[in-house]
Design brief:
The chain has 18 helices and eight strands. With 415 residues, it is an alpha+beta fold. The chain has a four-stranded mixed sheet. A two-stranded antiparallel sheet has the order 1-3. Strands 2-4 form a two-stranded antiparallel sheet. Helix 4 crosses helix 9.
């Protein structure tokens, strides 16, 4: 905890309204768990209202208004707007601008939830405390011109009070459970929705893999996706933010994607934007090659051909009298250390020392496996003068698909 607090920027004050919401709301939920009997109808309603709030954030505030990843008809916009407001996380105008800044300035001091500040700051610290950090500038002109966004922004507090607290408490009152409605449908629902949403700013930048790019902190993880209605495939999302999907693969958990696709089927949504599959595959391949490059660099490879000494036939014959040397594919191999491991026995190698065993190695006696070719290459000690190498045999099977690194050209583009 001390380490996490040390990462905080200098604190200039406390956002007391946010503190009140994020402290009193969980306390009301805890009070309900201790003192208010659970009504099955209230529990069902609370779960349904939770989905309404979360889909308002994920499909509305996030994918529709922050990223414009699809178009929605007015009734769907109103539904999503009210759902997002019911989660009490600020107006859509505030939420979308901040999120665009997060994407534009990821992992920098202009990122409103900069991951380098630690899990505690990214999860909740930036919401509770004032600091000198300011979100980086982004283009939000479309948000400023949207009448629905602007009307709800200017009327956010009464709307949040009604849809966040009053309505979810009033509806259970229809079956005589107003306290259950307030404690569970309102307070507990909000507490869970808050921290599941905040998890995208925190654990989704720390927990998981980076299958598309590892230059920045966003990561993919199934747990994050479970908590956030599919928003946990965060590495994909930061690479392809305009895509209406967070989960690119069909089997990945993304109910928000399924909701948007269903709305399109019903005629409520259109122009669902997807990033070209070919470009997504490039990102995935790049990361796979990067991992393979690391594995490749951890392996010991045969000495480079150009570094091997050139040996005459006479020298080869002379040296083979004191150690077991075989000629295969124009390369001289010292098999002395392999005598007791050779499957065909030590005698076969020693009696053929100083001979060209290329034909035998390639099927005359035994057609050796790729593994044998790879192992044999590690025994190279020279190249025979004038020695002929059969086509495609200079490169070992394990090096045919060798991963190479190319240097980018640093020259500036002329004006």
């Amino acid at each position: 905890m001390a380490t996490e607090l040390h990462k905080f920027p200098p604190i200039e004050g406390v956002r007391w309204f946010n503190v009140a919401v994020l402290v009193l709301t969980p306390l009301a939920a805890i009070y309900g768990l201790v003192f208010v009997p659970l009504d099955r109808r209230t529990v069902i309603f609370a779960c349904a209202y939770y989905l309404f709030s979360m889909i308002g954030i994920t499909a509305g505030f996030h994918r529709l208004w922050s990223h414009r990843s699809y178009n929605a008809c007015l009734p769907l916009q109103i539904f999503l707007m009210l759902g997002g407001i019911s989660s009490v996380q600020g107006s859509c105008y505030f939420w979308a601008r901040g999120h665009r800044s997060h994407h534009r300035w990821t992992d920098t001091e202009k990122d409103p939830y900069d991951s380098s500040r630690g899990l505690l700051w990214t999860h909740i610290g930036w919401i509770l405390f004032k600091s000198k950090l300011r979100s980086g500038p982004v283009d939000s002109s479309d948000l400023g011109k949207d009448p629905l966004i602007q009307w709800t922004h200017h009327n956010y507090f009464p709307l949040a009070a009604f849809f966040g607290y009053a309505l979810p408490a009033l509806i259970p009152a229809l079956w005589n459970d107003p306290w259950g409605g307030f404690c569970f449908s309102a307070a507990m629902r909000l507490t869970i929705a808050h921290h599941c949403t905040f998890a995208i700013n925190s654990i989704a930048h720390y927990l998981g893999s980076t299958p598309y790019d590892d230059r920045l902190s966003p990561r993919d993880h199934f747990l994050s996706a479970i908590l956030t209605m599919g928003e946990g495939y965060h590495n994909f999302h930061h690479q392809f933010p305009m895509d209406y999907r967070n989960a690119y693969l069909w089997y990945q958990y993304d109910p928000t994607k399924w909701f948007i696709a269903s709305c399109k089927f019903l005629g409520l949504a259109s122009n669902l934007r997807v990033f070209p599959s070919n470009e997504i595959a490039k990102g995935a391949l790049t990361m796979k090659l990067k991992h393979l490059k690391q594995v490749q660099e951890s392996i010991t490879w045969p000495q480079a051909i150009e570094e091997l000494p050139i040996v005459t036939w006479e020298n080869f014959q002379e040296e083979s009298k004191t150690r077991s040397l075989l000629l295969v594919s124009g390369f001289i191999h010292d098999v002395s250390g392999f005598l007791d491991q050779h499957p065909g026995g030590e005698t076969y190698l020693t009696r053929n020392s100083g001979k060209d065993m290329t034909a035998s190695f390639f099927g005359g006696v035994y057609r050796h496996s790729n593994a044998a070719h790879n192992l044999m290459s590690m025994m190279r000690v020279g190249v025979l003068v004038g020695g002929g190498c059969p086509p495609n045999q200079a490169i070992t099977p394990s090096q045919v698909l060798f991963v190479a690194t190319r240097q980018q050209d640093d020259r500036t583009i002329p004006n």
